[in-house]
Sequence to fold (353 residues):
Amino acid sequence: MKIVFTGGGTAGHVTPNIALIDKMQDCDAYYIGTNGMEKDITAPLVADGRITEYCTITAHKLRRKLSLENLLLPFRLCKSVGEAKKHLKRVAPDVIFSKGGYVGLPVTIAGKQLGIPTVIHESDMSPGLANRLCARFADVYLSAFDCDKRARVVGALVRDVTHGDRQKGLAAMGIDGTKPVLLVTGGSLGAQSLNEAICRHPELAERFDIFVITGKNKRIECDHVRQAEFSDKMPDLFAAADVCLTRAGANSLAELTLAQLPFVTAPLTKQSRGEQVQNAEWFVSRGCGLLLHEDRLESELCKAINAAYDNRTAIQAKQRAQRGIYGTDKIAEILRETRRDKMRLHARDTTNI
Fold:
């Protein structure tokens, strides 16, 4: 089985694809993306053969607000679709899988034009613009939550984070584990406001050893934390941590819940369509963590983190009840079903000739 994966712009559109590639090791995986973040993140998989080939196209960000740039978008999109079609014709995949982001749109359109079955997946409580457009061209529309009446709810597409190694995680952070560990992460791009808030609260270090994943080029000057720009050992870090301060990307909250790591989530509100607030409210309403609004980040940070840690046993019990949000196995099977449907249709058409 040959599959083309696509998705990019942030790690939230790439790491789910990697989770699926690792789950479907019997398949021949190709990746279509830009020269951006997705190429960097998938490079190790290309190097070790888990991805057969990385194919590059140009793609342009879709802007929700009125912009002169949008006037050029139809012409740029046509160019991107043409580039995607060239790759798809050469690779001849059985199925295309798009995880979203602006790079997924031209690939999905090209797949529709070439008659290649396309499956898309939405992670957030509200669909992004790219996936709303992709839904018009996709054969199968999946989602983690009940976010769109057109989508089939199958759960989150995430890594299996339940088998992390605590000692490896502590070693990666440079922490001995004598104090409880506070992990801080703002997603693949980092969150400067979370980084700065932790720096302004050195009193947290009296109770916790603190490790901050700052995001690329966001190193912080702070004596009471250890830090890294990025980590590819998140299951181990989750196993080593006792509480987490995080943004509210749907994949991040799903992984923290599956790893049974109590969290305080401070959803992004500025420069956002509001999906992070919705994601946070969904998980918090089920007892999986605590919500801290961004305008209270400074005044209530310590209180919220201490409360999440003090109530960790109750939070973990609620998190265990949400095992059903893991959808990676279901999505892998749907891709195989989609390929089988294609083969049956081809056999029927051949018989009728």
